[in-house]
Specification:
Elements (H helix, E strand, L loop, with lengths): L1 H12 L3 E5 L8 H11 L3 H19 L5 E5 L1 H4 L2 H17 L3 E5 L5 H5 L7 E4 L15 E7 L5 H5 L2 E2 L2 E2 H11 L3 E5 L3 H10 L5 E4 L3 H4 L10 E5 L8 H13 L6
Length: 255
């Protein structure tokens, strides 16, 4: 199973962190953007090709220390066909580098992913369309994003469904259909509540620091992966990787 592969890579690297790539054009390193602006002129082509080079460099450095990468699809798809090509290219690079590769699609790509157009190891889906979003081949994984961080998320996701909040009820249902669960929150109670209901489900945590993520892990440091997005903007990525991994190991020991 795909999650078994992910767990094995986490154990091999001894760290439960994934590099998060959700790049904003205005934060692309100036020399990279300048190179492609001189080649193509200002606009989508230059920005998309900058993301290709920048993302490839980040993936190469992350592969030495981390087990996985999570790419936010919308950050590439905004550039149309060339952005889609960049996304496919970076997924290929990441898999070739030995990184478990998840596309954070949130409903944008699942059908293309299922048809093999995007050959990532896993994809996030929005579960509120129903359980058919869990469809996947045996070696692939689906991460059902039951809790999101947008300002109005609680209007729906905190509604009561019987004796549970809706995001917990969605987690219960999607886990029964074989999905791992994704949570976009820096609030430890959300993590604790989801883990208390889903003791065996694998959790993908976004925007969560080590202290708040701690309840997601068992005594062996297994059961969850945390997406670290600040690394993509570090001035010295190699040094930032070293320090981030070291800091997480103070909280979570992976055996």
């Amino acid at each position: 199973m795909s999650i078994t592969t992910l767990q094995a890579r986490i154990r091999a690297k001894k760290t439960p962190l994934a590099l998060g790539l959700s790049p904003a054009a205005e934060r692309i390193p100036a020399p990279i953007l300048r190179r492609f602006t001189e080649l193509y002129g200002p606009g989508a082509q230059a920005e998309a090709e900058s993301l290709r080079l920048w993302g490839g460099q980040l993936i190469g450095q992350a592969a030495e220390k981390l087990p996985a990468v999570v790419l936010r699809a919308s950050c590439y798809l905004r550039y149309g066909a060339v952005g889609f090509d960049v996304l496919i290219h970076l997924v290929h690079l990441a898999r070739e580098a030995g990184l478990y590769t998840v596309v954070d699609a949130r409903g944008d790509l699942p059908d293309l992913w299922l048809r093999g157009a995007v050959e990532a190891d896993g994809v996030t889906v929005l579960p509120y369309v129903g359980t058919d979003c869990c469809r996947a081949e045996e070696e692939k994984s689906v991460f059902a994003l039951v809790r999101t961080a947008n300002p109005s998320a609680g209007d729906l996701q905190n509604m009561m469904a019987g004796d549970r909040r809706l995001y917990l009820a969605a987690g219960d249902r999607l886990a029964r259909h074989g999905a791992a669960l994704a949570l976009e929150s820096d609030y430890s109670l959300d993590v604790k509540e989801l883990r208390s209901r889903q003791e065996k489900a694998f959790l993908l945590l976004m925007g969560c620091d080590a202290e708040n993520a701690l309840p997601a892990f068992d005594d062996y440091g297994h059961g969850a992966l945390v997406v670290e997005e600040q690394l993509q903007y570090a001035e010295d990525v190699s040094a930032a990787l070293e320090e981030t991994v070291r800091a997480w190991k103070r909280w979570i020991t992976v055996l």
